[in-house]
Design goal:
The protein has 232 residues and is of the alpha+beta class. It is built from five helices and five strands; from the N terminus they run αααββαβββα. A five-stranded antiparallel sheet has the order 2-1-5-4-3, sandwiched between helices.
């Protein structure tokens, strides 16, 4: 409610009440007193109506804010879904290994804001995690990782996504298991986000989980195709 208007209404009611008290002391005619009483009641009624109107207006404004938030959220979700569709389509649009890795690099850079990443795949018997692709990561920082060893090996062994806790700086930003039919075939590692990105958001984590499945499948398919060509 507008404070000035409310104070004005209250002031008028108080003034009429004081006039009533004064006239009562003067023993004014009953008709005058009655008119003042009716005036005061009218002012009180108007004040209540005004208060109700402002309460209704406040409720409508809050409803409008909720609707705007819902529209913004729906728009954001629509954009996220479109991004997810584009990401999965790009990964499965080719069997060429180089193009799959390039698509993965571009998806991680454009949608997740990360230009420092590496892909590890399980190779050999017994299987070890070997870096098969990297961007923005010094070569000396990468090497063969035993399953269960460190963050990358633990991610592979458990099959669970790992995200760096807030305040930690000496760990990768995220380790995402690459899976095919529920079995881990490798690990996608994000080392650092771009400065403007700041941190991973819920939509980013959904994309990471999606990449874990679709990138895992696309990479395995491209690897099998490469082996088939080599065997010909």
């Amino acid at each position: 409610m507008n404070c000035a208007m409310q104070e004005c209404e209250t002031s008028l009611v108080d003034q009429v009440s004081r006039v009533e008290e004064f006239l009562n002391r003067l023993e004014a005619p009953a008709s005058v007193t009655e008119e003042l009483r009716e005036l005061r009641e009218s002012l009180v009624a108007r004040e209540r109506e005004r208060f109700d109107l402002f309460e209704e207006l406040a409720a409508l404004e809050e409803q409008q804010r909720r609707l705007h938030r819902a529209i913004d959220e729906a728009s954001r979700r629509g954009s996220d879904l479109a991004s997810l569709y584009v990401a999965t389509h790009r990964l499965h649009s080719t069997l060429d290994r180089g193009q799959v890795l390039q698509a993965l690099e571009e998806i991680v850079a454009s949608l997740l804001g990360c230009e420092e990443l590496a892909v590890f795949e399980l190779v050999g018997r017994p299987a070890v995690l070997a870096p098969v692709f990297s961007v923005g990561v010094p070569a000396g920082r990468l090497g063969i990782v035993e399953p269960g060893e460190g963050r990358i090996g633990s991610c592979s062994a458990s099959g669970d996504r790992w995200l760096r806790p807030d305040g930690v700086t000496q760990e990768p930003v995220a380790c995402v298991p690459l899976k095919v039919d529920g079995e881990t075939t490798g690990v996608l590692v994000l080392y650092e986000l771009l400065e403007h990105k700041g941190s991973l958001q819920p939509a980013d984590i959904e994309l990471l989980d999606l990449l874990g499945v679709h990138a895992g499948t696309a990479l395995l398919a491209s690897r099998l195709r490469a082996r088939f060509r080599e065997a010909q």
